Amino acid sequence: MIRKPMIFAATSDLSGKTRGKAFPADQLNKRRERGMGWVPTNVQITCFDTIPDGPFGALGDLLLVPDESTGFEVALPAGAGDARMMLGDVTELDGAPWACCTRALLRSAIDRLDRVAGLSVTASFEHEFQLARGPSGTGEAYGYQGFAPRAGLGEALCTVLRAAGVTPDTFMKESGPDQYEITVAPAPALTAAAAAVLKRFGYEVP
Fold first, then answer.
1. What's the rounded Cα separation, in Å, for the pair 11 and 90?
2. Average pLDDT for residues 72-97, to the nearest whole number?
3. Are 115 and 107 in contact (CB under 8 A)?
4. Which of 12, 32, 43, 48 could serve as a FRET partner for 87 with CA atoms 20 to 30 Å apart?
5. Which domain holds residue 158?
6. DSSP 44-107
7. pLDDT in tens, 48-77
């Protein structure tokens, strides 16, 4: 059987989770024009995957439209295929930005800052994480002895980031047990926010 690649179209929601839908890669032209069905109540999903009471219920239709410029691909072990992801915009059915789309909210804030104050934002995000079954030890913060056992992980993350058009900056052993940090180079606000989501996706892939 020939494996058909799929692309995960994602939105970074208000709970800090990256959620979305996957579609066959050969439908990209259609999906970037027409998107996929999405519903307003999805914005209420908490970080624990529950949906509290809110104004949307099961009503309403939206579109999740992938942005090809944010395409990201992670090579997986042999036989597992590759993981492909694009960030998307949540829009109304007529293509207008939805009021709760996080990318639309960011664009609006960037435009307003420029319009009101003539300012722009250059930013970077650092991501810190703990390895569940890493080599434990004390007195290794920022040291080579803490870095060396995970050098391969750092190299893999940096390789994936470069493939996504994101420039890695540093990788280090942090202060906590089995805690590490990776940073990327500063970029304009919308690009920096996309890089933060892509970076997190890169080490969420199994």
1. 8
2. 82
3. no
4. 48
5. 125-185
6. G--TTS---S-S-TT---EEEEE-GGG-EEEEPSTTS-EEEEEEEEEE-TTSPBPTT-HHHHHH
7. 999 888 787 777 899 999 999 888 877 765
